[in-house]
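Before surveying the methods themselves, we first show a specimen of the format, giving the amino acid sequence and backbone structure tokens:

:::
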Amino acid sequence: MFSKDRWDEILEALSANKFRTFLTAFGVFWGIAILVLLLALTNGLKNGVTADFGNFATNSMFIWSQQTSISYKGMPKGRTFNYKLGDVEALKAQIPELKYVSPRLQLGGFNGANNVTRGTKTGAFQVNGDYPEYIKQEPMDITNGRFISYSDINVNRKSCVIGTDVVKGLYDKGENPLGTYIKINGVNFMVVGTFKPSNSDGDQEEEANTIFVPFTSFGQAFNSGDNVGWMALTGVDGKSITDIKPKIFEILKLRHKIHPDDDRAIGNFDLSEAFGRVNGLFSILGFVGYFVGSLVLMSGIIGISNIMLIVVKERTKEIGVRRALGATPWTIKSQILQESLLLTICSGMVGISFAAGVIWIMNYILDNSGPVENFANPSVSMSVVFTALIILVVSGLLAGLIPANSATKMKPVDALRID
């Protein structure tokens, strides 16, 4: 029940020594601010590092062929081999846990020689021969037209989808690329769509300089036959690609007469495994943030408890008078606890507000100065704020508990004797 007199007493007690109250409150303010800022900075690092994964399905892996390191069935060590479209079909047929198997052929590159022309304009761009499902593994924003389709695949249609920087390099401002033709290594391809990368990490510029063409058209135009440069594989939901990996390797080794123990012949990058390691690292950093922040906050709580003990000591005679007039032990205890809670929560809320202001400033600077490597969008979720509030309430109760118990143990007669 609200009592104005009680709150007037609490405020009067806390304002009796303003400087002491300020120093005590500052400990809690600084502790909770450090806790929130540490968690925000950890989240900023996590956002920056995980941005390197782009929007590619994190339950995915890439595989490519390398030289064999063990001789096998009359085949020499150091032998090279190529994946084939038959390998793709075998993986799809024999491993139902695979959601997508996307073969790719590739030529050119952002730093390579000029390989694409349109009229008098030329450019060096990366050209990928892909299947339609690749856009489900690495989402991109189709800004105009469409992505490659199975109708393109089935009839070897020479169509292409070009990135925003390809448009800038080969077309005049305001010119619509759809329906026009570009030459890739001397072969005409019709533009059926344009796209921009949907992520904003460091690879965005390279992706915007990319051209996608149907896999079959690529093979026909550039004489690669049924060879496959590399594959992107994604596991079904709920099944880690890392768990499927041994079966994938087993099938490919069998099909290409590779020794079962030759782990160097099949190059691979397990995005799921790498993503799991990153998440594990930042889970640890998050724990460290809570631990360090809580220790700093604890020092502030200890300060409040010490000050409340001093306040109780100074008010010994007042407490004795109140006890003599009929105040119950719980009445005395509740007032001490309320004072401790008020001091803790108010200073803690100011600390949370201060931390929120610092986070806003950091994001403002990042938005205006451009992306910083491995650091992006430092922030905390509402669950962190609610956790901080719970910590404040519990801390305030703990800080006032010992002084409150000390106050109720005084006998009214003994308290009244103190001058």
